[in-house]
Design goal:
Main location: membrane
Pfam families: DUF1328
Subcellular location: Cell membrane
GO cellular component, one term: plasma membrane
Number of domains: 1
Membrane topology: Single-pass membrane protein
């Protein structure tokens, strides 16, 4: 899951550099949610 977040982050950076603001914003939003889900699942797995 963290790999997907990094992939979407890289896509957002490339899209932002090429001027595709909509794609960059959407990719960044997906990456942010994936990182949040990863952190929650990591905390839950450490507690259980």
């Amino acid at each position: 899951m963290l790999e997907l977040a990094l992939l979407f982050f890289v896509i957002a950076i490339i899209a932002g550099a090429l001027g595709a603001g909509g794609v960059a914003g959407m990719s960044m939003a997906v990456a942010k949610w994936l990182v949040l889900i990863f952190v929650v699942l990591a905390i839950v797995s450490l507690l259980l």
